[in-house]
Amino acid sequence: MTEHDVHPAGRTDRAADRAADRAADRAVDRAADRADEVGPPPGAGVPQVSAEPLDPEAGLATAEYAIATIAAVGFAGLLIVVLQSDTVRGLLEGIVGQALTV
Fold first, then answer.
1. What is the mean pLDDT of residues 12-36?
2. Is the separation of the CB atoms in 60 and 54 below 8 Å?
3. How far apart are CA 67 and CA 54, in angstroms?
4. Which end of the chain is more exposed for a tag (fewer CB within 10 A), N or C?
5. What confidence score (pLDDT) does residue 63 get?
6. Which of 66, 63, 84, 86 is nearest to 74 (CA)?
7. Do 88 and 82 meet the contact criterion of CB atoms below 8 Å apart?
8. How far apart (Å, rounded) are the C-alpha atoms in residues 47 and 41?
9. Strands, E assignment, 2-62
10. pLDDT value of position 72
11. Neighbours of 7 (CB within 10 A)
């Protein structure tokens, strides 16, 4: 054994490692004991049951948003096609040109 193998408190590195392991084990045991004392929160693991019947219209708002979004995407696609046509492009350039010359 060399002088580098001795812990400052006089123990070897292996003895220090074992002591650290025991201290860590005790800390884990204490934490587990505290968790057992506290227990799970009230109602944990118990399914929530409602006495009211399910609403037959539940989820309709989400479906309406989905349909409106699809319609908006379709309208945006149509608008892009129309705005890229030569006729509409000429009209828009004329309007912008008149606005800049005033």
1. 77
2. no
3. 23
4. C
5. 85
6. 66
7. yes
8. 13
9. none
10. 96
11. 13
Q: What's the maximum distance between 2 C-alpha atoms anywhere in the chain? A: 96
User: Could you tell me if 7 and 13 are in contact, meaning their C-beta atoms sit under 8 angstroms apart?
Assistant: yes
List 6's β-bridge partners, or say none.
Answer: 12
Is residue 55 within 8 Å of residue 61, measured between CB atoms?
A: no
pTM: 0.37
Highest mean pLDDT among 2-11, 28-37, 68-77: 68-77
Tokens 């309709």, located at residue: 60
3-state secondary structure of 45: coil
With H, G, I as helix, E, B as strand and everything else as coil, classify residue 41: coil
Per-residue pLDDT reduced to its tens digit, 34-82: 666 666 666 666 676 666 777 777 777 888 899 999 999 999 999 999 9
Mean per-residue pLDDT, 82-94: 90
User: Tokens for 97?
Assistant: 């040109």
Burial bucket for residue 58 (CB in 10 Å: 0-12, 13-18, 19+): exposed
Residues 6+ apart with CB under 8 A from 6: 12, 13
